[in-house]
C-alpha cells in the first residue's frame, strides 16, 4: 500500500485538493482510504463519504493533534490494509506551524495557499520545510506576480521539493499531482512500525498541559519559559 | 555542481560576495548570519544553542544540505542557456467520448494570438493544463505538447523558475499590503533582475498607459481600480514574468486598453492565448480553437470578413466608451 501524509494550515484547501486528486485515483481503478485528523470538529469526513471514499475521523481534542497523529498512525495504517486500499491518505491541519506529521520514507505533502501572504513560508516550520511536494492553492484569485513571488519564497525554504499550483475548485493540476504522488515507482509500504518521524516534536510539559488554569508564578511548573520583555 | 562540503567549508562572506542572492535566502530561512560572516555556515549553526535550534525546528545537517541544494539549483537556473521558446505544438488526443480530435497538429509561434472558445466545462482548463504540464500522452486527453518542435525538457514541469504559462484573469486581485512601486520591486527582486529601478519605471509607465486613469507609484495596490489593477498585472506580467506563454482569461473592456495590452505582450515576445466569449477580444486572435466535449473540435482562422466585423465591433466599443465617459462626467447620454 502507498501511504501519503498531507498537512497544511487550516482552510488552505487540503480537502478540496484531495477530493479532486482522489477522483483521478479512482478513475485509474485504485482504491483509496482517507483518515482525517483535526482538533475539535470537522465535517470534511462527510465530503469523502459523499464520494464513497472510506474515511476515518480522528479528533485530538485536548491533545496536540500531531502527537495524537503519531500515536494513532500505526492503527490507521492497519485499517488501510484491512480495507484493501491501494493508497492511504492522512490529512491533518497544522496547529502551531511548528510540527509536522511527516515520516521518513513516506511521501509528505504540504498544502498552503497564496492568500496566506508572501511572509508565510518563512513562518512555517518542518511542515513546509521537510515536505516532498508543496501544493499551492488559490492561485486563481491572486495576480501572476504574487503567485511567482510566493512560489519563489517556498522554494527558498524548501529547495528540494516539487512545487505545484493546484486549483481545488476546478481541479486544474490535480491529475498531475496524482501522477506525482502515485506512480510505478511508488514504494509498497508493508508496515510503519519502527519508522521514524522526519522531525522531532517539541518537548513541552508544563502545569498548564496538566490542566492548571490559574495564572501566577506559583502555579507554573515544569517546562516554563519567560519572554524577555525589556523597557526600552 | 558545487560539492556539498565545499559550500559548507567556504566562509560566509565569500559565499555572499560570490552569490549575492544568498542574502535573501538566509533571511527567508530566519538565519541571522550578521556578525558571523567570517566563519562558515556550519560554524554559524554551531553558535546557535540547542534550545533555539529546537524552537526554530532547525536540523543542522538538514540546513547544510538545504543550502547546497538551493545554491546549486540557483546556479543551474542562472547559468543555463535560456532556451528561447519559439513555438509550441499541440498534437491531437481524444475528447471525452474517446474520439480523436479533429485537427492535424496545431503549431503556435512566438507573436501569435490564439483565442480559445467553448462552453463552460468544455475542456478549456484541461487544454491549458496540458500545455502547462507539457503533456506527453499522459493526461486524460492523451495530447502531446512539443516545445520548439521537439520533446520538451522535464524542467517545464517541475522548475518553479521555468513555467510555460503565466495567467491573467478578471477574477485575479492583488492581496498584498504594498504600494504599486513596492509591489513591482518585490517581484523584480524575486526574479533576480539587475537594473531594478529601470524595470520598475518601465512597468509603471506601461501600466499607466494601459489604464484609463493614471495612478501614482505610491498608490496601495489594493486600492487600485479594476482597470488599473488589470493594467498593472498585464504590464508586470509582460515585463517581469519569464513564462513565454500568457493566458488571458476574459478581460473586460472597462478601464483598460485591451488592444494596447496585447501589443505590449507581443512586444515582449510572448505567445498569447485568450479564453473569451467576447467577440472583440476573440477576433483579435489570428485563429481560434473551438473546444467541445473535452476536445478540440476545430481550429478556425480569422477571415478577412471577420476582421471587417471586428472593425464594426470596435466602433461600437468606442461609442460605449464615450458614453461611459459622459456618464462619469455627469452629462446626459
Characterization of this structure:
The complex is a heterodimer of chains A (232) and B (333). Helices cover 28% and strands 18% of the residues of chain A. Chain A contains six helices and seven strands, in the order E-H-E-H-E-H-E-E-H-E-H-E-H. Chain A has helices spanning 14-27, 44-50, 65-82, 126-129, 144-157, 174-181, and strands spanning 2-8, 32-38, 55-59, 87-93, 107-113, 133-137, 162-165. In chain A, helix 1 packs across helix 6 (174-181). Chain A is globular, with a radius of gyration of 19 Å. Chain B has 333 residues and is an alpha/beta fold. Chain B has helices at 4-9, 12-18, 22-28, 41-47, 50-55, 60-79, 124-132, 155-158, 180-190, 196-210, 226-240, 258-267, 279-282, 304-328; strands at residues 87-91, 106-109, 113-117, 144-147, 165-169, 245-249, 271-275, 287-292, 295-301. The longest helix of chain B has 25 residues, at 304-328. Chain B is globular, with a radius of gyration of 24 Å. Chains A and B meet through helix 5 and helix 6 of A and helix 3, helix 6, helix 7, strand 5 and helix 9 of B.
Q: Kindly report the CATH topology of chain A.
A: Rossmann fold
- Series of secondary-structure elements of chain B, N-terminal to C-terminal: HHHHHHEEEHEHEHHHEHEHEEH
**Widest β-sheet, arrangement of strands of chain A:** 3-2-4-1-5-6-7
Biggest sheet of chain A, open or closed, and with what strands and sense? 7 strands, parallel
Which spans of chain B of ≥5 residues are poorly predicted at pLDDT below 50?
A: none
Q: What oligomeric assembly is this protein in?
A: heterodimer
Number of helices of chain A: 6
Kindly, what is the distance between the CA atoms of the first and last residues of chain B, rounded to a whole number of angstroms?
68 Å
The CATH class assignment of chain A is: Alpha Beta
Pattern of helices and strands of chain A: EHEHEHEEHEHEH
Biggest sheet record of chain B: 6 strands, mixed
Query: Structural class of the helix and strand makeup of chain B?
Result: alpha/beta
Estimated structural class of chain A: alpha/beta
Give the CA-based shape of chain A.
globular
N/C terminus separation of chain A: 58 Å
Helix content of chain B: 40-55%
CATH class of the largest domain in chain B: Alpha Beta
Total strands of chain B: the figure is 9
Report the portion of residues of chain B in β strands: 5-15%
Amino acid at each position: 500500500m502507498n501511504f501519503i501524509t498531507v498537512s497544511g494550515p487550516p482552510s488552505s484547501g487540503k480537502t478540496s485538493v484531495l477530493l479532486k486528486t482522489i477522483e483521478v485515483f479512482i478513475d485509474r481503478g485504485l482504491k483509496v482510504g482517507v483518515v482525517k485528523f483535526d482538533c475539535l470538529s470537522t465535517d470534511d469526513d462527510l465530503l469523502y463519504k459523499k464520494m464513497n471514499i472510506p474515511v476515518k475521523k480522528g479528533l485530538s481534542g485536548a491533545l496536540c493533534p500531531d502527537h495524537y497523529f503519531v500515536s494513532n498512525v500505526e492503527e490507521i495504517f492497519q485499517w488501510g490494509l484491512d480495507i484493501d486500499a491501494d493508497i492511504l491518505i492522512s490529512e491533518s491541519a497544522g496547529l502551531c506551524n511548528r510540527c509536522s506529521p511527516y515520516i521518513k520514507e513516506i511521501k509528505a505533502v504540504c498544502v498552503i495557499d497564496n492568500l496566506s501572504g508572501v511572509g508565510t513560508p518563512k513562518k512555517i516550520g518542518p511542515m513546509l520545510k521537510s515536505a516532498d511536494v508543496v501544493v499551492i492553492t488559490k492561485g486563481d484569485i491572486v495576480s501572476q506576480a504574487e503567485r511567482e513571488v510566493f512560489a519563489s519564497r517556498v522554494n527558498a525554504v524548501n529547495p528540494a521539493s516539487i512545487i505545484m499550483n493546484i486549483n481545488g475548485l476546478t481541479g486544474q493540476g490535480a491529475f498531475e499531482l496524482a501522477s506525482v504522488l502515485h506512480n510505478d515507482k511508488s514504494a509498497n509500504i508493508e508496515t510503519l512500525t519502527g519508522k521514524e518521524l522526519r522531525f522531532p516534536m517539541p518537548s513541552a510539559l508544563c502545569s498548564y498541559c496538566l490542566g492548571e488554569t490559574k495564572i501566577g508564578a506559583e502555579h507554573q511548573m515544569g517546562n516554563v519559559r519567560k519572554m524577555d520583555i525589556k523597557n526600552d | 555542481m558545487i560539492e556539498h562540503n565545499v559550500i559548507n567549508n567556504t566562509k560566509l562572506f565569500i559565499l555572499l560576495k560570490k552569490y549575492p542572492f544568498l542574502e535573501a535566502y538566509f533571511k527567508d530561512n530566519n538565519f541571522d548570519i550578521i556578525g558571523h560572516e567570517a566563519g562558515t555556515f556550519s560554524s554559524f549553526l554551531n553558535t546557535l544553542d540547542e534550545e533555539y535550534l529546537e524552537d526554530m525546528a532547525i536540523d543542522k545537517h538538514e540546513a547544510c544540505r538545504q543550502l547546497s541544494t538551493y545554491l546549486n539549483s540557483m546556479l543551474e537556473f542562472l547559468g543555463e542557456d535560456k532556451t528561447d521558446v519559439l513555438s509550441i505544438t499541440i498534437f491531437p488526443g481524444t475528447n471525452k467520448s474517446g474520439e480523436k480530435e479533429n485537427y492535424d497538429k496545431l503549431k503556435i509561434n512566438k507573436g501569435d494570438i490564439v483565442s480559445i472558445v467553448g462552453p463552460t466545462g468544455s475542456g478549456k482548463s484541461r487544454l491549458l493544463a496540458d500545455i502547462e504540464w507539457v503533456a506527453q500522452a499522459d493526461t486524460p486527453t492523451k495530447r502531446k505538447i512539443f516545445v520548439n518542435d521537439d520533446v520538451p525538457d522535464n524542467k517545464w514541469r517541475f522548475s518553479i523558475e521555468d513555467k510555460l504559462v503565466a495567467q491573467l484573469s478578471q477574477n485575479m486581485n492583488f492581496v498584498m499590503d504594498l504600494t504599486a512601486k513596492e509591489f513591482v520591486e518585490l517581484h523584480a527582486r524575486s526574479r533576480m533582475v539587475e537594473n531594478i529601478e529601470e524595470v520598475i519605471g518601465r512597468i509603471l509607465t506601461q501600466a499607466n498607459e494601459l489604464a484609463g486613469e493614471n495612478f501614482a507609484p505610491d498608490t496601495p495596490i489594493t486600492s487600485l481600480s479594476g482597470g488599473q489593477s488589470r493594467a498593472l498585472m498585464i504590464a508586470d506580467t509582460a515585463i517581469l514574468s519569464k513564462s513565454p506563454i500568457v493566458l488571458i482569461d476574459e478581460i473586460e473592456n472597462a478601464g483598460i486598453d485591451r488592444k494596447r495590452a496585447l501589443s505590449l505582450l507581443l512586444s515582449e515576445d510572448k505567445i498569447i492565448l485568450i479564453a473569451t466569449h467576447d467577440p472583440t477580444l476573440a477576433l483579435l486572435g489570428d485563429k481560434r480553437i473551438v473546444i467541445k466535449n473535452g476536445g478540440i473540435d476545430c481550429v478556425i482562422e480569422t477571415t478577412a470578413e471577420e476582421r471587417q466585423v471586428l472593425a464594426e465591433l470596435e466602433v461600437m466599443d468606442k461609442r460605449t466608451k464615450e458614453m461611459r465617459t459622459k456618464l462619469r462626467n455627469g452629462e446626459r447620454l
